[in-house]
Write a structure and sequence with these properties.
About 60% of the residues lie in helices and about 0% in strands. It is an all-alpha fold. The radius of gyration is 48 Å and the shape is rod-shaped. The chain starts with a helix and ends with a helix.
């Protein structure tokens, strides 16, 4: 919008410079300074010598008014838009109106102000944002496999590993191997699994999850394809228990 207003200002200045009235030859003549010149009296007397103007004089008879005339009411001088000040004012109003019209058109095209803008379609990633907070609050009732597929569609591979790990905690909780609580640490779950035959695999997957989720380096699709089979195999083992 700011760029559109700048364009309007530049266009207005160009219109104003083109529409300003130029001085006519008569105005230029009136504005020229007067140069006083001295009259050469000797030259003038030689020029008018021998010329008699008495024969050209005509007697003008004073005409008697037949009717008594009354002074007419004085009319105000007519104002013409061709005069300097009024012409400039009228053109200024026209230019200002043109600038306002262009600004409104730009606002309409760019979608600002009170004009209705075209609603942009919501992308698939925006419509399926994964809320980990909500998932962890209702982990036992949540279909984590559906969220794993969504994370993979959005190419969020680290998030998919976290969801796999949450799914493992969900299955262990249902098998009474651990007691799920949202604020418990992974170290607490490892302590609960010390006497279980599943502990070595669970410990290894916990290490992988922490390295992926809390590590400084992001994983790509190739890294994920190497790690996913280990989580899938452990989940399958839990489902068969």
């Amino acid at each position: 919008m700011f760029r559109g207003l700048v364009y309007c200002g530049i266009l207005g200045m160009l219109l104003l410079s083109l529409m300003l009235p130029a001085q006519t030859p008569g105005e230029q003549y009136l504005n020229e300074p007067l140069n006083n010149r001295q009259l050469n009296h000797d030259y003038w007397e030689k020029t008018v010598q021998g010329i008699d103007y008495s024969s050209d004089e005509k007697k003008v008879k004073k005409k008697e008014p037949t009717e008594r005339s009354y002074p007419t009411e004085r009319q105000p001088p007519s104002i013409s838009f061709g005069s300097g000040a009024w012409s400039f004012f009228a053109k200024f109003i026209l230019i200002l109106g043109a600038i306002i019209l262009i600004a409104l058109l730009l606002r309409s095209l760019l979608g600002y102000g009170g004009f209705r803008t075209k609603k942009m379609p919501v992308t698939k990633s925006e419509a399926s944002v994964i809320d980990l907070e909500k998932i962890e609050e209702n982990i036992l009732e949540t279909d984590l496999e559906r969220y794993i597929r969504q994370a993979l569609e959005q190419q969020q591979y680290a998030l998919a590993i976290r969801l796999y790990y949450l799914n493992i905690l969900k299955e262990l909780s249902q098998l009474k191997q651990i007691k799920w609580k949202k604020d418990k640490t992974n170290r607490a779950y490892l302590n609960e699994m010390q006497s279980s035959a599943l502990n070595p695999t669970f410990r290894q997957l916990t290490f992988i999850f922490e390295r992926v989720w809390y590590g400084a380096n992001a994983i790509d699709e190739a890294d994920f394809n190497m790690l996913e089979p280990q989580f899938q195999a452990f989940l399958q083992q839990l489902n068969q228990s």
